[in-house]
Structures are given as C-alpha cells and as structure tokens.
C-alpha cells in the first residue's frame, strides 16, 4: 500500500499533471476563495473608460476584520458562465478596472490581495485595438509603486502578461498544483517542435510548477492543497491558504515604505533572471 501511495504521489508530481490539475473544471476560483476568506465583499465595476470586464473581479472586503481590496481572475463554471467571464481572459478594461480599484485602495491605505487564475490576456483584435499591451504595461509600472501591502496568490493558471498584470506584489504565494509561465505548454510545443502534442515535454522544460518557481525565488511560498488537489475540497484549500495569507500579510506590514518598494521592485526584476549551466560553474 505504501508503495502504491508513493507511486501515485510521484505521478501527480509531474509537470503536466500539475498543468491538468491547475485547469481542473472544479478547481476553486477567485469568488470561491472570496466567499470563504473575506467578509462584506462589495464588488467594484467598470474602468470608467469603456466597459466592465467580468473576467476580472475586484471589490472591497474585510480580511480578519481589516478593510482590504480583493482583485482576481474569474473563469466561470458552466458554459454560460465561462462565456460571460470570457474564460478568465481579461481585456484592457479589466486591467484598467483593476488598477483603478488598487489606486482607490492606496488612497484609503487598504492592503491588496490578488488572485491569479487565467490562461492569459485575451488576444482578440478588439482587445488589441483598445490597447491590451499598454494596459498590461501600465499596471506593471503602477503596481510596482503602490504604497500599500500587496499579497499575490497564484491559485490556478498563471498565463504570461495576463497574469503578471495583477501579479506585482510584496509577497507571491502559489498553490502547489498551480502553474505560472510565459506561455502554455501547448503553445510552447507548437513553436519549438511544431507539434502541440509535445505539451508534456514542454511543461517540463518551462519549469512552470510551484516548486520550480520557489527554487528560482520567484515565488515566496508554496501552499499545500488537499489530497488529490484543491478541487477535492474548496473549504480545506481555503483554510490552508488563509493561514499562509495571514502570515505573509503580517510580515509585509512590518516593512516601511522604502523597504516595501525596494523589495517589490527586486522581485519584479527577479522574474527576468536568466541562468545557464556555465554561470553555476
């Protein structure tokens, strides 16, 4: 029995298995965690420029009685919800809504909690026409300068700039079966080997798992999930996440403004680190 359990754990630990768990249709999304971790959530809508983007949810809430702002991607469960949420792929108005809410939180000195779960920013022509790349770049710059604590958690898929646009923070946490990468394994395989069926091979090469990213010091903490994955128990997944958020938030508020901005900027620059075998010799 022990050998069977060990084999099962090793099987789940493969990179592409993690990808599949991160995409599991029953995996808890942002609203699931908001319901379990926060109180008095009041949603904020619209970017005051064009429209409201349902792929990003943000609003004011209380975390352990403390006023805070929550921002996160939302995928949806059934077909109707997924279409409404655009499968969790934000358009420019989503990112502009997010940064508008973050600046409001900064004004009233409220900490910010963000939850990443997106295949990536929406690549449609209409999104490009309204300035998708500019919206993402603007968020990166402005989040790096926010004076309040920002705690980021990758809860599912962390796809490229679509994830990074709400991912600049003092502390970056990651659920153990979440992924975070510049491109999907299928997209990477199609580019490198002209064969998307090589996705499992690409997943290993991308080093997109929580353990890989923690080793590279991009992620500060890997949070355990219930046996079998977060989709097996939303309540238990939320309990484990709540403990980590409380600890990391308590640590973040001990830093003064200069320390906070310096650490956040270093963390952003760390994401672009490149290392070869010869560098280690």
Keywords:
281 residues; 8 strands; 17% strand; alpha/beta
Detail the topology: elements first, then pairings:
Elements: H1 2-12, H2 15-22, H3 30-37, E1 39-43, E2 56-63, E3 66-73, H4 79-84, H5 92-107, E4 112-118, H6 125-129, H7 132-145, E5 150-159, H8 160-164, E6 171-175, E7 179-181, H9 185-192, H10 199-206, H11 210-215, E8 221-223, H12 234-252, H13 257-270, H14 277-280
Parallel strand pairs: 3-4, 4-5, 5-6, 5-7, 6-8
Antiparallel strand pairs: 1-2, 2-3
Helix pairs in contact: 2-10, 3-12, 5-7, 9-10
Give the biggest beta sheet.
8 strands, mixed
| Unreliable spans | 1-12
User: Given the C-alpha coordinates, what overall shape results?
Assistant: globular
Structural class: alpha/beta
Q: Order of SSEs, N→C?
A: HHHEEEHHEHHEHEEHHHEHHH
> Helical amount among residues, as a percent range?
40-55%
Strand content: 15-25%
Total beta strands: 8
Based on CA atoms alone, the radius of gyration comes out at 18 Å
What is the mean predicted local confidence, pLDDT? 90
Structure annotation, total helices: 14
Termini separation comes to 42 Å
